[in-house]
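hey so i finally got around to running the thing on that chain from the lab meeting. sorry it took forever, my laptop kept dying and i had to restart like 3 times. anyway pasting the input first so we r on the same page abt which one it is
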Amino acid sequence: MTRNEMIKVLSENKAEVTFTKVDGSQRVMTCTLKSDLVPASDHKSESNRTVNESVLPVWDLDKLAWRSFRVDSVTQVVIK
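ok and heres what got predicted. didnt touch it at all, straight out
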């Protein structure tokens, strides 16, 4: 799945994303980019920062905070 495909899926749904962390351990995160599930005060604003295409920031629904993962480390995406 490409980064853009992940963004599309996460913008429309909650999903369980399984990925390999930098330390080699596996992590399963329930996350989203769906605007009605991210608190209004926590919506990412446009900035002049360069977007790192290899990393995808998402809203972690369990930790209620922004987290990110490397796109190439994703092993599974399951829509919830």
